[in-house]
Structures
1.
Amino acid sequence: MILRYLKFVFPLTALILLVLMIVDIELFSGFFGYFSKNSAPAIYVRDHYANIVGWHLFTVFIASVGATIVAVSVGVFVTRPAGEAFMPLAKMLANLGQTFPPIAVLALCVPLVGFGMEPILVALFLYGLLPIFENTITGLQQVPKPVLEAARGMGLTQGQRLFNVELPLAMPVIVAGIRVSVVINIGTVAIGSTVAAKGLGEVIIAGLLTDNMAFVLQGGIMVALLAIVIDKAIEIISPS
Amino acid sequence: MIELQNLNKLFNQTHAVDDVSLLVNSGEFCMLIGSSGCGKSTTLRMINRLIEPTSGSISINGEDVKSVPVEDLRRKIGYAIQGVGLFPHQDIFENIATVPKLLKWSKTEIEQRVEELLTLFHLDYETFAHKFPHQLSGGQQQRVGVARALAARPELLLMDEPFGALDAITRNYLQDEMLRIQKQLNITIIMVTHDIEEAVKLGDKIAVMDKGKLLQVASPIELMRNPRDGFVRELVGGDDRALNLLSLVKVEDVMTPIADIGKKPQSQHLSDKDNLRDALSRLLWVGESSLPVINSEGKIIGNVALVDILAKGKKQK
Ligand SMILES: Nc1ncnc2c1ncn2[C@@H]1O[C@H](COP(=O)(O)OP(=O)(O)OP(=O)(O)O)[C@@H](O)[C@H]1O
Ligand SMILES: [Mg+2]
């Protein structure tokens, strides 16, 4: 019983802290004051935190929706008889997307799409594909053979089998992949601020540039809190 | 009536099904038996076109199975398999309702049908309708699997070793259920098995396969008496044939009725629904040359002598 509550205490604390920091970061000026040297400001005030966190999440959201659509579609395709031949190729590409450092993607993208949100969207999209793609394949492949045989034998069409049987049964595994992907990207999106994308990264970078530990901590802590809260949120809404 | 004509299936180089022709009449319970890998499942799955034959044809009531869209065909044929394959994410009600829903039955029709089927299989509606497959025992799952296969009132039911994974007692019980249900619904059943006792118990007709070929098609008694060649002979039990034959005959068919019906039974007796194999065993065990027979009400209705039984086990010309 206690253990069940404990599982929620940690994310709930994270959520409360996060909300407080977004609503009124001044509440923590005393704490962050310890880390600012030479009377530098303890609190980042160039933009409101609601705005910064909003952009941070929005960027991750757009990239993750894109990655989910593409990864699930391709995962479905390569597990169909018609697409089986493309499985190795798709796996290789998804692996490449993950091994290729996001920072290198940024560097390559800026000349093509300019500064701002676009390059980091591309980087997050590529980086987030692999966990979702792999889990889609795993989830679909672990649907028991007799279940598929029965579905076919009872006269469900290919589409009915996919949407009424295979995807619902694979869904918990797919959502687990999305969860991993999103949580990774909540951290990774911070580097987008090096190419002028909005988000918590700009606070961290401002801190690094001015040697202001208070800013670095503020940005870092909020990224961490976001990751914890979103991770739990997806767990709660995901099918079991 | 289901007719398989010169059916062949080649997987790469292997001849999985080799020129099989078989006729199953409406209302017949046909058992397809043979050792592992002999092509039973392949034959069965060609009937609902889960596998397309390399050559040959299949017709149901004179209509080629290829003349209707494959999904329509499958919705008209019940299909139950060893792994059951219930949908784990749907409750028992939804599982059974699968095909009626595909056929767009009305909600009330579906509800009635599910209730009817659960009753038919002695599963209480209130208890089971909204349970999930993992909450049921293997035997209960298998019953739901068959109920689901029968949901849209198919005239033909295909079963691929449906009771293969169950313990002997449960299997026996479900076999009795199948016999009862087949009589009650008067449907045609083609069932794959590799258990000769199951084939003999359930089948009106037994089709023996070996290495893709159909060796013999006959009634259980005919198969026991005149197994055509080596494989069939081995299958029906070689030297056990006499005993297997006895298991096909009931005590009531050979007993001598007694005039003073209703006498109180002695301690040792046989029951009218026992088969002769069990009766013989009992006689030998108690060392009697004959025993009284009682009916389901416990009244003595006749007498069976050892010699009557022995006569039944003899090879007949
Ligand atoms: N999809 C397939 N691809 C290739 N070979 C197959 C395929 N399905 C079956 N076979 C082969 O065809 C032969 C017959 O298989 P089938 O499943 O019909 O046997 P079975 O009589 O049902 O055996 P069991 O009692 O073990 O289920 C076997 O040699 C099997 O390996
Ligand atoms: Mg088989």
2.
Amino acid sequence: MRVINQVMGIVEAELRSLLREVSWFIGISSFPFLFAFVAYALGSGMGGRPADPRLLFYQLIGLAMYIVALMMTFSAASFVREGLLTGRLEYLLSSPISPFTMIFSNMISSSLFGLINYIIVGVVATIIAFGFAGILNFIVSLLVLYVALIPAIGFSLIFLAVSIIVREPEPIANLIASFIAVVSGFLYPVTLLPYVLQIIGRALPYYYAVEYARSTVQGFINQIFTMPFPFMFFYLIAGYLIYKYFERAYIKKKGTYGW
Amino acid sequence: MAGNFFIKGIRKVFAEFERGVTIYVRYKVWLISDILATPFWVLLLLYGILLYAVNYVNNSSVITSLTWGIFLFVFVSNFLGIASSLVLSIQQGILENVIMTNSSIVSHLVGRVAISLIDTAVIGSLVLLLNTLLFSANIFIADPLFFVIYLFLAILFFLFFAGTYSFLIINVRSPWVANQALQFIIPFFSGAIPIQLFSKGFASVIVYSPFYYVIGPIIAAATGYYPIDRVLFLLLDILAVLIMGIISYRVQKIILRNALKKGKFSLF
Amino acid sequence: MLQVNEIYKEYKTRERKGLFNSSYRTVKALDGVSFEVEKGEIFSLVGPNGAGKTTTIKIIATLLIPDKGEAYVNGYSVIKEPKKVRENLGIVLYANKGFYSRLTGIENLVYYGRLYGMSKQEALRRAKELVDSVSLGKDAYRTVDEYSLGMMAKLSIAKCLINDAPILLFDEPTIGLDPISARKIRNLIKELAEKGKTVLLTSHNMWEVENLSNRVAIINKGKIVISGSPWEVKNKLKLKHMIEVEVLNDNPKLDLDFKIGERGFPVIKVISEKPTEDLLRIVDEIRTKGYEIGNIKIIEPSLEEAFAKVVEEK
Ligand SMILES: Nc1ncnc2c1ncn2[C@@H]1O[C@H](COP(=O)(O)OP(=O)(O)O)[C@@H](O)[C@H]1O
Ligand SMILES: [Mg+2]
């Protein structure tokens, strides 16, 4: 019970400060629209007639998922990082909360933030391509997306460990974010890519999250959770072990989080 | 006396330029990360657009045009960064100290312009190179002399534009939101994607955008396809730069006067 | 050297109530402030937070235009000849910011030096001199993002001196510093004045100002309430001294009230406007009764008390 209260406390505080930054939220939410509509307009211009709205849907919802995926992957690290820089982490650590509870709470709150964003963008995209009839499928896709992204928590933990050790983790995050964007099929089917990148893409959990969730909205629910997906949970386990290793090797030895 | 004034002016500009370059180089890790990430962003943008025209993937001339489009996307978004640099300068208490030295704000922006220039050069060339290697884009510049002239004019234009625009967003708490929107909208309405790729109706909309006369000529000189006579293009380009310069000067004056009266930099 | 004539300044601020409602309100920041600072003098403006100190400094620095009134720097009007005014000023606006964090201290100084029109070599030479004189030492070659508050304050002062201006403005130069760093900064300012610089300083630390300044003005709610040398200010306010006389006797028979002091002997405590007369009177009385006298203390009123008195009365 106590753990739940702690989680609720952190989630509430985090969400509040996130939502206070309305302009930040607008900025994030507008990104999929900007990109997808400009691409759609270019596509229409190049084709000489209005392009297929299902392609617009494809990219809009893909970008919204990209944002959710990024939040899942980096929020824990940036939370701990901000805590390190502001000194807030020390307070939290001195209260009887386990680091895991803390990180987990943060993940929930930023997932919620990503969720709101996903709903706004996704509903618009779904209506454009499938009309109101698509909404039911879209709601199911929420669940699919989040379940399929669970293995990504493994990456979150690895990056958390990295960002505690490295002085400047942001550039690394920048690089990883761009890589994930290319190979996971958020904007286009991975089959367009060179073969090597296709393989790498299919070896990462993001690909499955995007494909499954998007096919759910498109009404191909039967295709999901096929063979390779369960193997993705390997990342969750690996991530946990790696994080634990670093925690023991670095963090504990120094007696504190930080560099 | 006038000579002395001139020398001081040059010194200020050089100081700002050098400051910009030094800071740029200090963010080494970022620089490396940006360079490494560039191929991925290029692929993302290119495939993101080609989703709509899958049959163009092997069409070298389309890829070439899109490549220049991405190059100018890099250019524009980099120059929009100048605007947020002014907000930062105010927040860090630097701008007031700069004003105390009797320097102008446009010369202060030169520091960030230096960063934008180098970054555009580094990342932009990388974009060109990558597309040549990966997609056999043909980045041979058809009309090099005019290309350089047009590029220079565009730099001036965006310096003034950023100067104006940075004053407009001075009270915005998260200027990057506005930047993000503009970095898509401006290349789009400037013919960064050459208008010969577009249907007639679409192309005729773009010619009403002032940005078209700044970005359009660069693309034209690069690809060799001039939709307007190149000298006429040049004149229109110069006109656009002059108008932007005047607007920038006026806005700067108004904002500065407001700052001195109200104790904060604001338009209203 | 520096002359401020009856300046007034009001700000418009927006009060936010909840998410969307807001209303305008005017804040009177300066309500007719006048003072003068002579060459080589250290003049301090002291007042609580929000008294209008920064506003005054900014108006003198041409960074703000007054609603009414004028100020002159070296004879130049801050409204009509702002460029000339800036040439005659060195300024510390914030002791904790104003520099590029990824540049070193010395690079920041050279940058400002060049903005003042120096060549790179000149600026570098000057920057090195200044780094020594503010005793920043090797730290000058570290990037500013690693600086402590004390180092930042020193760098700010060096920056303020880079153009060798005759008049220096310091807005709370020691705010947030530990006592030792603060003392170093004060000594620096003192030296500058001895070398002939005119200094205007703001602070809310009375003790600091009392030791440092030739003259002070206490400002509260945009008005100068009292000004003069620290001594004059105390005098004008008729602040009282405290006299303490110790009698070396366990149970003296005196007409004066006493309490047992720290050392176990009776101590006579008197609050007095005329300390010399009162002291002699007390000593006489004790002597004539045949008692011996231990310690004698006269505690002078501090400027702090003056400040408290002025601020609380209003
Ligand atoms: N830019 C501004 N806008 C609105 N009010 C301001 C502004 N700057 C200062 N004030 C107000 O003016 C008054 C005087 O401020 P200031 O001169 O900064 O005081 P001090 O430096 O003595 O603490 C304060 O009430 C402050 O809130
Ligand atoms: Mg102040």
